[in-house]
Design goal:
InterPro entries: BofC_C, BofC_C_sf, BOFC_N, BOFC_N_sf. It comes from Bacillus solimangrovi. This protein is of the alpha+beta class. The chain folds into two domains: 82 residues, Bypass-of-forespore C, N-terminal domain (Ubiquitin-like (UB roll), Roll), CATH 3.10.20.420; 69 residues, Alpha-Beta Plaits. The chain is 31% helix and 35% strand. The chain has a four-stranded mixed beta sheet. Strands 9-8-7-10 form a four-stranded antiparallel beta sheet. It is elongated and about 70 Å long. It starts with 6 loop residues before the first helix and ends in a 9-residue tail after the last helix.
Length: 186
């Protein structure tokens, strides 16, 4: 069953949601506010002291890595705070602490700097921190039928294929996926 709503109804739903969210956040942070009515302006409120909040920014990369940056924000105006993080997803909040997350459509900086594709001793497509001979495994994928690889592909994996971009990361995985050995049931 399809329900149709007008643009006005959709805008009202969005407005009610925004007001509800703003009220929730005001209630969340209100214990840190000191609100006083000015005698000359009956309905105006002022914030007499700022709020200090610990902010954690989590970046989740295509390769599965999650990085975190922690910082302290001093907030004078909630609108400014929320607009600063408008492109982040709110993951958790409690008094004095907020955690935001953002999906990054790229591989992690660590992988770009130190990542190499190679083959583990068991024949798994593996990402190493540094050349494969250092055996510093970051992530393993799937078992490869080495006998089906061309000689130059075997040599590339033995030497290590440096990972410089998301596109290359995805291309290498897709290229070697066709040599994947399906799991054999016990």
């Amino acid at each position: 069953m399809t329900v149709r709503i007008s643009k006005l109804q959709a805008m009202m739903i969005l407005l009610i949601g925004a007001i509800s969210g703003a009220l929730t956040m005001f209630a969340f942070f209100s214990s840190s506010f000191e609100v006083k009515a000015k005698p000359e302006e009956e309905s105006t409120h002022t914030i007499t002291e700022p709020i200090t909040v610990e902010v954690t920014l989590q970046k989740h990369y295509v390769d599965g890595k999650l990085s975190e940056d922690k910082l302290t924000e001093i907030i004078w105006a909630m609108e400014d705070f929320w607009s600063t993080y408008s492109d982040w997803q709110l993951v958790h909040q409690e008094k004095g602490q907020v955690i935001f997350r953002k999906q990054i459509d790229d591989i992690s900086p660590l992988l770009k700097q130190q990542g190499y594709f190679g083959l583990s001793e068991e024949g798994r497509l593996t990402i190493y921190s540094g050349k494969p001979e250092l055996d510093d495994v970051i992530q393993s994928f799937f078992q490869i039928n080495i006998e089906k690889l061309e000689v130059h592909q075997q040599e590339e994996l033995k030497q290590g294929i440096p990972i410089k971009s998301k596109e290359q990361y995805e291309d290498v995985i897709e290229t070697f996926r066709m040599f994947k050995i399906d799991a054999v049931p016990f």
